[in-house]
Amino acid sequence: MAARFRYLAAVFILAVGLLSAASQAKDRRNVREPAAPKGVCARLDPSGGNDTARLQAAIDHCVPSAAVYLGPGPFLSGPIEMKSGTTLWLAGGAILTAVADPKAYQKSSGSCGHIDRSGDGCRPLISFTKTKGGGLYGYGTIDGGGGTLMAGTAETWWQLARRAQSEGAKQNAPRLIQMDRAEDVSVHGITLRNAANFHIAMSHVERATIWAVIIDTPADARNTDGIDPAASEDVTIIHSFIRTGDDNIAIKAGTSGPARHISILDNQFGWGHGMSIGSELNSGVSDVLVRNLTLDGTTFGLRIKSDPSRGGLVERVNYENICMRNNKWPIHFDTRYGPFAGNNLPLYQQIVLRHVYGTDGTLVMRGFDQQHPLDIAMEDVRFSPRATWQVENATVTAVNVFPSPPGAAATPHYGASNPCVVAFRPFPEATSSKNGGIERDPRAAAPIDR
């Protein structure tokens, strides 16, 4: 079955369905911009050496709702563990760089900096484990040093990842920030760059806000996802610039729990693998809102990926006001991501695209089989005449879609109607002088209009 298309007589019938689905698909909180910490419990200046011990001591002795403040200049650290209610505040011009010694990140296996079959041998640089409140704040930079030679070797973290790929194994490299079973955590204003592995990884996180963050890592740095909310709920990622060597954002739900009520609002992506859901979907992903997103040169645009070895139900996902250009696959909803067998069939339902625009590329919608088709609704979805569709095992409701998918009634092409001409903004380059190095007071910010 190539596809089944439903063309409704009136646009308002589709619009009613879109609005109904969108009312549930989002972070359930009334999210406000994170405010500056109420107090500072310790002010640290660069020491010129390894700052791990004094950073950890300052965090350990900090009172709730206060911050450890890093002044301008270079800091060097191995893994540090945050505690509830404490914020690490980086001043403009502060640069916290990860030490390049794999021994500093070792877990009990001793495999950090090596290749094996598990890839879980390193501690993260910054961890939030079972914390409540607190986070990261300021206009400084956290640098993972992914392109730096690992101590005692002739190989960088990124080269280790490429070698693991060529050997069919997994690299052991530290994530930049890991949140595990944390609640009410926020990351505001910080620049994250050059992670050895993922930049921000979440697992079983409740109520997280990522606001005005810059993530900047080379396009060829393997497995350097920007932000990965996994098995988490009530997460908002907003006003951020992200370009990486892998998924810009990837929402995941493996065997440990579902991911739901996630809002991705007013963000801009540079290079990377796009706005992804998957590939681990065993426990299900639902109630996701992606609104006001630009994807400038990402390999994939809007992507849902899985296969029978790790599939599950993805439902109530709404993409609204999306601008794309120079993407190889602007839309890629695929249920056969890998060649793996299993009984966990991917099923994508109530997937809505509204006011989505792009240039050329291949538009893929591939359901698993006729008994498990994709369920897609599209309104005002427009690409250049050079874009091509690949549709299989999909039930599609479409109004004003160009180019028309296979078997659909022709839709006129109105090139002048594309509102994306002014949507793309330059990626911030001079991160160390962002806002002139001046801390602004965000406490008067209004709630997000969603």
From TrEMBL:
One of its GO terms (biological process) is carbohydrate metabolic process. Keywords: Glycosidase, Hydrolase, Plasmid, Signal. Residues 1-25 form the signal peptide. Residues 430-450 are annotated as: Disordered. GO terms for molecular function: polygalacturonase activity. Residues 437-450 have a biased composition (Basic and acidic residues). It comes from the Bacteria. InterPro entries: GH28_Enzymes (IPR051801), Glyco_hydro_28 (IPR000743), Pectin_lyas_fold (IPR012334), Pectin_lyase_fold/virulence (IPR011050). Belongs to the glycosyl hydrolase 28 family. This is Polygalacturonase. The lineage of its organism: Bacteria, Pseudomonadati, Pseudomonadota, Alphaproteobacteria, Hyphomicrobiales.
